[in-house]
Amino acid sequence: MSQQLYSIYPGSWPLVAESRVLSSVQAEVMDELWAIGWRNFGTDFFRASLMADEMSLKRQIALRINVAEFEMSKSQRRTYRRNSDLQLTIDGAALTEEVKDLFEIHKMRFVRNIPDRLEDFLGVEPNGQPCECQQFSVRSGSRLLAASYLALGKRACSSIYAVFDPEFSKRRLGVFTMLAELEYAKALGYEHFYSGYATVESSCYDYKKEFQALHYYGWEGRWAPIGELKS
After folding, report:
1. Three-class SS of residue 203?
2. Which residue, 152, 124, 125, 116, is CA-closest to 136?
3. Backbone dihedral region of 119: left (phi > 0), alpha (psi from -120 to 50 degrees) or beta?
């Protein structure tokens, strides 16, 4: 089915579809890969300019935020304050039974494209393969409510994946952990924060377009402000 979809892709949109496996990557090389649209789940690296959404094709774009210019919107500040009663810790990423159990709860919120294993996003050794990776853990007392993962390069970082308990959806914990990652990136002086992919057309990834200082990669070697994106 994917070959059929790619055969009818919009001719005016660049066609990019690549993948590779890299088990160990130096921090400055991670920066270089992210800067040309690559993304990674563990040691699996990939980049693609199209996304299959059920039976339609959507134009996919890589996103990054200029960290020094980023400021929270009013809505994001409310989300950050709403979760100030929770405990946030940052440590090296680890596939503990606690976070695996949370992933099993998290994936119950999906009705299609249900994720299988957390290892599919983080690899078997998330903090070291292919690079250093930090885990942001959010707790209420001893209960883990959310966890997110941030890969670290030399001058940039990339948000990999986040899990949260759907019971607490009103807290917008996925947005909260991304904001926490951005604050961490700003404190460490990173230039760019890569927030993954979204699509030109409307999709479930639209929330990623709501961040300030956001740029997209047009697959022709140029990053541009999201406001220049033509639908």
Report:
1. coil
2. 152
3. alpha
- Reported as half-sphere exposure (CB side, CA atoms, 13 A), residue 121 has a value of 24
For residue 44, what are its two tokens? 């699996």
| DSSP designation for 125 | S
Q: What are the backbone dihedrals phi and psi of residue 155, each rounded to the nearest 5 degrees, phi first?
A: -125, 10
pLDDT tens profile 180-215: 999 999 999 999 999 999 999 988 899 999 999 999
Dihedrals phi, psi of 219, to nearest 5 degrees? 65, 10
Antiparallel, parallel or unpaired: β 192-199 and 39-41: unpaired
Three-state secondary structure call for residue 117? coil
Helix (H, G, I), strand (E, B) or coil at 224: strand
Q: Kindly state the tokens that stand for 123.
A: 């690899």
Domains of the chain, each with CATH number or no CATH: 2-228 (3.40.630.30)
Partners of 48 in beta bridges: 17
Both tokens assigned to 207 = 């929330």
pTM recorded for the entire structure: 0.93
